Amino acid sequence: NGARMPVTVKNVSKYIDLYARYRIHDSVAKQVAAVRAGFLTRMSTWKCALVRHTCTIAEVKRMLCGHRDINVQSWKVHTQYKGGFTAETPCVTWFWELIELMSLDERQRMLQFCTGSSRVPSEGFGDLSSINGG
Fold it and tell me: Residue 25 — pLDDT band, cuts 50, 70, 90?
């Protein structure tokens, strides 16, 4: 019945504690549980515990979200060409010359267009799958 209780000088500290708990924990508990359930479909409980105890938050973020930086040389090395195209085909070399001239933001948008993600997988371009899983 906290909604019916007036906030006073005596209970303002308790009010702030409870409100903060609600905003930080209780209000997102369902969403956090859904994310956790999603993790557990891909990782066992003990692997999640291992990550929690051995990785920093920045490392976990990098594993989940990938890298913002784009190493063009690595992108070239891990690109698979089809339809008679090779790394030496003139339009392919022009493409890479253009990519080299782009800003990071432009490269990220091009990567998003080409792969569906603006970030490089945490293990690098070698870990990137094509749309058809190859």
Answer: very high
Neighbours of 65 (CB within 10 A): 13
Tokens of 57: 């938050």
Q: How far apart are CA 5 and CA 111, in angstroms?
A: 54
Between CA 21 and CA 25 the distance in angstroms is: 5
The model's confidence at residue 66, banded by pLDDT at 50, 70 and 90, is confident
Tokens of 98: 């253009």
| Beta bridge partner(s), residue 120 | 67
Quick one: which of 103, 82, 85 has its CA closest to 94?
85
Rounded to an integer, what distance in angstroms lies between the CA atom of residue 20 and that of residue 29?
14
85 Cβ contact list (under 8 Å, min separation 6): 91, 92
Record the pTM.
0.59
φ, ψ for residue 80, nearest 5 deg:
-105, 125
- For 44-61, the pLDDT digits (tens) are 777 778 888 888 888 888
